[in-house]
Amino acid sequence: MSTHTLPDLDKFSHLVDYRESQVVLSFIKNKLELKRKNQFPGMQPVSMDKQNISFLLNEDYLVCEKSDGIRSLLVLLFYGGKPRTYLMDRKNEIRRAENIWFPTETSEFHNETIVDGEFVVDIEPGNIRRLRYLIFDCLMLCGQNVTSRNLLVRLGKAEVFIVKPIRNSKAYQANSPFGVYLKRMKKVIELQKQFDEVLPNLRHGNDGLIFTPVNEPYIFGTSSKVLKWKSPEMNTVDFIVTFDHEHDVYNLYCNQKGMPMFYAFYSPDDEFLDWVSHNNNESCIIECYFDKEKITKGFDFDKNSYYEDKGGWKFMRVRTDKDTPNDFSIVDKIIRSITHNITKDKLLKLQPVIQENWEQREESKHSTKKIKADDVS
Which of 11, 31, 37, 66 is catalytic? Predict the structure, then answer.
């Protein structure tokens, strides 16, 4: 389990009432042209496996660390004639941060702006905790939908029109409970630096890497080209866990077509039982990783008897930020990633090929530009 502190959003924000929530959700749905009414628009990665890892060889990617924080869309919108700062989480719950306004480069306030990012707690020397919001994408800027632009353009707009004005605003720096930064991203050809320089010096929790394609638009929901890499032992699944009192076993469920589907039995870990005893709740969403050495207790309904299997899911944490488990298709991809066992060493062995292919693409771009220029002359 992570030893890092997770942000406490209650310290600076609160859930809004139904009416205000519907105004914000309707704005997001209409402006982004979402097809589903209650869709969380945030782009979701898929686990890296032996098939999709080839994307890194053939396309331009940026890579960043996968923070152990709280994912939130930041929605800057006027409401009641005043600039407001809203947070939207995976459960589509809307929170409002009080007395926080985002300045623009003209000293006005942002309106109809949406960025994607996560809250983290950085622990600085002297055990000083700093709450920060790390932006890793931009969806809308002052009413302009930018999701169709490439990643570099989207990040550039976030830096110039959001992060820079904040950096230059003494009022924001003095009054805001959290800092706002652009997440550090590097070209995939600098993958080694992520492991050698970035990850060892992080001041917040981390559990892997995210690879985002440069030349793709922002996708609402799961994107098959945004890749999530974790060391095999850190690949996790979010299940609903319930207790079957009649048979004295815990069950893990994932989603299939919007309905709970039994996936596996679960032998509860001490940390989970501690949480149950303190919260008086035997049903919740838990994040688990697979331990091939764990002994799991199950129940054979045909034989009406218990049995034990080697291998099972181990508890990491309760996901209070989610209200649905992973879909079966996602679980299947994660299991495939665990089976394919793409370690750090295997990933870095691809670095020379990634570098060579990147340089060839760059050379091809320059050659194409030169040919076009020659055609004009």
Answer: 66
